[in-house]
């Protein structure tokens, strides 16, 4: 059974940086597209960033372009999200997802990130 465990979320001041990690177990993510999504209170879950397995190409939500970077380390079965210049509107639960490629869709339980103004 595939499991994804996110970590790294915490309280941070606006303008600060955080790195989230998503550790997978139960299968290799090397042929999986991987995604980070976020959901703020009362809002829908939106795509933050996605990385493809074939060539590690990436795409980002418009609100995070130029500030966030998704990366993967297949040898550690882990995906990262480097977040810089954080904004209060980025306060949300951040979820990791097996997001296509040769893999079923699987969600992690999320990690809370709170950005204070």
Describe the protein's architecture and organization.
This protein has 117 residues and is mostly beta strands. The protein contains no helices and eleven strands. The strands form two sheets. Strands 2, 4, 5, 6, 9, 10 and 11 form a seven-stranded mixed β-sheet that branches. Strands 1-3-8-7 form a four-stranded antiparallel β-sheet, with no helix packed on it. It is globular.
> Nearest-angstrom radius of gyration?
13 Å
Shape: globular
- Give the biggest sheet: 7 strands, mixed
Overall mean confidence score, pLDDT? 97
Low-confidence stretches: none
State the secondary-structure class: mainly beta
Helix count, DSSP H or I runs of 4 or more residues: 0
Q: Tell me the series of helices and strands, N- to C-terminal.
A: EEEEEEEEEEE
Helix content: under 10%
**N-C termini distance:** 40 Å
What portion of residues belong to β-strands?
over 45%
The number of strands is: 11
Characteristics of this structure?
globular, 11 strands, 117 residues, four-stranded antiparallel β-sheet, single chain, mainly beta
Note the topology.
Elements: E1 3-7, E2 11-13, E3 18-25, E4 32-39, E5 46-51, E6 58-60, E7 68-73, E8 78-83, E9 92-101, E10 106-107, E11 111-116
Parallel strand pairs: 2-11
Antiparallel strand pairs: 1-3, 3-8, 4-5, 4-9, 5-6, 7-8, 9-10, 9-11
Short description:
The chain is mainly β and 117 residues long.
